[in-house]
Structure formats: structure tokens, C-alpha cells
Design brief:
The chain is 53% helix and 5% strand. It has one domain. By secondary structure, it is mostly helical. The protein has a two-stranded antiparallel sheet.
Length: 131
């Protein structure tokens, strides 16, 4: 596979979410995934996303999807999720990460594992990546 093909595969958050995590994306979430894809294909390495939406729209679930995609496709990577409080990270984001991982092809195939404490997804070929 060519370098461009590998880059395109790594950039395909949408495909990862739908095929590996077995999740469906709403239209606005598809837009965010396509924005990430475009930025990665343009060579950007540091990505951030700010989403203004109503309560209950699925922002936390999307953050969990993107965190799993990022760590599963990039050995030795790190991400820095933020929230207004530590309780929001532990009680909302980590719960979504765990739920998505346990229902994914990653867990079914035994790829990676969730560790306690600082939730880490261990890449099968390298050291753990902090989500």
C-alpha cells in the first residue's frame, strides 16, 4: 500500500467509527469526521475541535469515538481531552470510551485493552497511549 493510501486509511475516522466501533454517526458528526480527515490529509498534526450544540446532542460520544480512533490507529500517540471538571471526564467521557471499546471489533479481536485509573488503550505493538 502506498504512503498516500496509508495516510487516507489513518485519516478515515468515519470508516473506523462505523466499521470498527460499530456505531452510527449523525449528519453533524459526519461533518466533524470529514473535517478531521481533510486536516490530516493536508498534513496537519495537531487537531482540535470545538462544537457548540445543545445538551444531549452526543458531543461526549463523538469525543469518545475520536479518542478511540486516534489511539487505535496511531501507536505511541497521546490525546488531551478536556472538560469543565474531572468528574465530567471520569463520569461521562471515560464511560463512553469503555462502552464503545467493549462493543467494538477491537475488543472482540483482543486488540488493546482498557486499563484502570488513567484510561489507557494499549496498542498491540507498542506502549500504551493515553486517551
Amino acid at each position: 500500500m502506498s504512503a498516500a493510501g496509508i495516510a487516507a486509511l489513518l485519516a478515515a475516522a468515519r470508516a473506523f467509527v462505523e466499521l470498527v466501533l460499530r456505531a452510527r454517526l449523525r449528519r453533524w458528526k459526519l461533518g466533524v469526521c470529514e473535517e478531521f480527515r481533510g486536516r490530516l490529509l493536508a498534513g496537519k498534526r495537531h487537531l482540535e475541535v470545538l462544537i457548540r450544540s445543545c445538551y444531549g446532542a452526543g458531543k461526549t460520544k463523538l469525543a469518545a469515538m475520536l479518542a478511540l480512533w486516534w489511539t487505535a490507529t496511531r501507536p505511541d500517540c497521546r490525546g488531551l481531552p478536556t472538560a469543565p471538571t474531572w468528574a465530567a471526564l471520569e463520569g461521562l467521557l471515560w464511560i463512553e470510551v469503555e462502552r464503545l471499546y467493549r462493543g467494538s471489533l477491537l475488543a472482540a479481536a483482543g486488540v488493546g485493552r482498557l486499563l484502570t485509573g488513567w484510561r489507557q488503550l494499549e496498542h498491540p505493538t507498542t506502549s500504551p497511549g493515553v486517551i
